[in-house]
Design brief:
alpha/beta; 3 domains; five-stranded mixed β-sheet; four-stranded parallel β-sheet; 14 helices; 16 strands; about 45% helix
């Protein structure tokens, strides 16, 4: 089956043609480990997870590399603010990131290279760029990339270079496209860097953020690979600069397809640390939302559309996850051994193969589940139909990961369940209903069946 993705570089959908048949190489910009990642960050990481899962499901081998940015302006500033060693800061937040990834069932990358482990390779690429005339050394020992030396600078962000005001140079890792400037490859040591520096041919210093990803991606995926992902905020300057320095140094196309996810907005605003409206994964779990509900909320909009994140969306996600799990349990009781799938499954895969259209895929799945549920309620569902439905959900779960793992009911909920069962046996219906309401308030739902009750997280 053909798969097509929207390529930010060409601004159109393109058929995936892997460089190496049967294998797709993907580089995703990982976290800058100076703080705990928030739910807005995970909008991008979940999109990348869906991309990887779709490729795996249709039969590709995936070689996935995600970097860890453990040296940049932000990590150094954090270490200085807390008067701690850089490694102490970055190790803590790297561990928290991996913990949150596991919680959200995000498939691990094949490699998680850290920037500080690749300093010598960064020095080597910088040296190459100087030798080719694409970079120059300043009096203080910093090295800058000359954007005028690269003919196609601005092609990813679609910059009109003729109308841009070009200033001298910029040493900051992040900046806007209001002023197009030569960007830093190697930053000379400054007093505020403390003991954070490495020796280079140009003196003590450290790499620039943009250089780090060029080096780590090509180190593990070769000089030319299939897909590079990130959020839309990475397009400029980060990915634009990656293209310039990589293509200039390596004389290859560097990356075939660039994919970017849109922002997650909270209360009609972009979620960001500067606005103070962020939520971390542990905070959302403490608010009573399951990992599956968070995943559902993050994939309910197509990755290139802005995602409005709210309590209502999370509540809708909880209900949707509950419906999927409820139907799955019902079908599991009726199924037989078979690998058959309903015809709707083909449409489901087609929608995902068309630039990861998750809303359409979810719509196909839920329309099918409603049809199956009606047959179950009328006792008209055959065992073969139950089996096809069960297989459909299992296949869909390989993409969405919404089936709840074995439910461990907290002791406080178990005690309420025991009291409710006792009340039901004694026909104390008011008390029984009251206890069910209390259980629901705590984030669990009781369903009475012919075989007893089920207790599931909402």
């Amino acid at each position: 089956m053909d798969i097509q993705f929207y390529n930010t570089l060409t601004r159109k959908k393109e058929k995936l043609n892997p460089i190496k048949p049967g294998e797709v190489s993907i580089y995703t910009c990982g976290p800058t480990v100076y703080n705990r990642s928030h739910i807005g960050n995970f909008r991008t990481f979940i999109f990348e997870d869906i991309l990887k899962r779709v490729l795996l499901l249709v039969g590709y081998k995936v070689n996935h590399v995600m970097n860890i940015t453990d040296i940049d302006d932000k990590t150094i500033k954090k270490a200085n603010e807390e008067n701690k060693k850089l490694k102490e800061i970055t190790s803590k937040y790297t561990s928290e990131f991996i913990e949150d990834m596991n919680t959200l069932k995000i498939l691990p990358a094949n490699k998680y290279p850290a920037a500080t482990d690749h300093i010598q390779e960064m020095i080597a690429m910088t040296t190459t760029l100087i030798e080719k005339g694409n970079a120059y050394v300043t009096d203080d020992g910093s090295v800058y990339f000359s954007i005028n030396s690269f003919e196609n600078y601005g092609k990813l962000a679609k910059l009109d270079m003729s109308s841009q005001k070009q200033t001298d140079r910029v040493a900051s890792d992040e900046y806007t496209k209001d002023n197009i400037q030569d960007f830093v490859l190697w930053k000379s040591w400054k007093k505020e860097d403390g003991d954070i520096s490495w020796n280079s041919p140009w003196g003590k210093g450290r790499p620039g953020w943009h250089l780090e990803c060029s080096v780590m991606s090509t180190q593990y995926l070769s000089d030319h690979f299939d897909i590079h992902c990130g959020g839309v905020d990475n397009i400029f300057p980060h990915h634009e600069n990656e293209i310039a320095q990589s293509c200039a140094a390596l004389e290859t196309d560097f990356v075939n397809i660039w994919m970017h996810s849109e922002h997650l907005n909270m209360a009609d605003e972009k979620m960001s640390k500067s606005l103070g409206n962020i939520k971390t994964i542990p905070e959302l779990l403490n608010d009573g939302y399951s990992p599956e509900s968070l995943r559902y909320a993050l994939i309910s909009s197509q990755y290139r559309s802005k995602l409005s994140f709210s309590i209502n969306k999370l509540e809708d996600a909880k209900k949707a996850v509950h419906r999927i799990n409820d139907v799955f349990e019902k079908l599991n009781e009726r199924s037989i051994e078979s690998d058959s799938l309903p015809e709707e499954y083909n449409k489901f895969i087609e929608s995902l193969s068309d630039d990861l259209n998750t809303p359409k895929a979810l719509g196909i799945l839920f329309n099918y589940l409603r049809k199956v549920n009606r047959k179950i309620s009328k006792n008209e569902l055959s065992k073969s139909e139950a089996t096809m439905g069960l297989n459909f959900i299992k296949q869909a779960d390989k993409i969405f990961a919404l089936l709840v793992d074995k439910v461990i009911i907290p002791e406080s909920i178990s005690k309420l369940i025991v009291l409710r069962e006792k009340a039901r046996k004694e026909k104390q219906w008011e008390l029984s209903d009251s206890l069910r309401d209390k259980i629901k308030e705590k984030g669990w739902i009781i369903e009475d069946t012919h075989d007893g009750y089920k207790c599931l997280p909402i």
